[in-house]
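User: I've been trying to design a sequence by hand for this structure and keep getting stuck. Would you show me what you'd pick, starting by listing the structure so we're on the same page?

Assistant: Good idea, let's start from the same input. This is the structure you sent:
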């Protein structure tokens, strides 16, 4: 059984390595994207679990990259990341927010034409692979979710966290928060 310290070290290493991967055809690396997303959550005075979920929302891409023959494709990176974080012992809120970040995009595209128009070209391309806009039934289920507001916010930070060269706090500044959220 790993200690919380060991788990956080493992996560920080994985994120550190993401400095060399580009984020899905965007002009920032996976690491810059994660740090920018977490910083947006922090500056919106979100709770610790939401900040951690923002930092780790795309961890599924990195877990996949380290497994040559992952069972889940990149399309399922939200589910893959959520599963990974659940196994590490993160609380349900973090797991749920990470799991839902693709669903939140499908929800927002369905209800907000202005949001849909703002999606980057890459995000528009992956939308089709992710199932396209939500049906009316799916929208109703999503709207009734108690974490709906946080899920939608995380998605908007995700969309904004693509600014090349934008200065933000480094990974080390999340260490104690990760430890406290991991409990
Ligand atoms: Fe993302």
């Amino acid at each position: 059984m790993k200690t919380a310290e060991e788990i956080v070290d493992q996560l920080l290493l994985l994120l550190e390595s993401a400095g060399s991967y580009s984020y899905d055809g965007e002009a920032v690396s996976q690491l810059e994207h994660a740090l920018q997303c977490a910083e947006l959550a922090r500056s919106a005075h979100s709770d610790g679990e939401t900040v951690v979920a923002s930092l780790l929302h795309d961890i599924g891409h990195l877990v996949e990259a380290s497994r040559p023959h992952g069972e889940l494709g990149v399309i399922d990176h939200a589910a893959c990341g959520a599963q990974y974080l659940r196994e590490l012992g993160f609380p349900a809120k973090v797991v749920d927010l990470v799991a839902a970040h693709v669903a939140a995009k499908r929800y927002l595209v369905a209800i907000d034409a202005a949001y849909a128009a703002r999606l980057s070209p890459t995000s528009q391309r992956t939308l089709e692979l992710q199932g396209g806009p939500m049906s009316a039934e799916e929208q109703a289920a999503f709207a009734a979710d108690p974490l709906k507001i946080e899920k939608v916010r995380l998605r908007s930070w995700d969309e904004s966290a693509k600014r090349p060269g934008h200065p933000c706090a480094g990974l080390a500044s999340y260490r104690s928060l990760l430890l406290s959220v991991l409990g």
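That's my pick for every position. To get oriented when you compare it with your attempt: Residues 33, 57-58, 158 surround fe (iii) ion (CB under 6 Å). Residues 113 and 178 are 35 Å apart (CA to CA).
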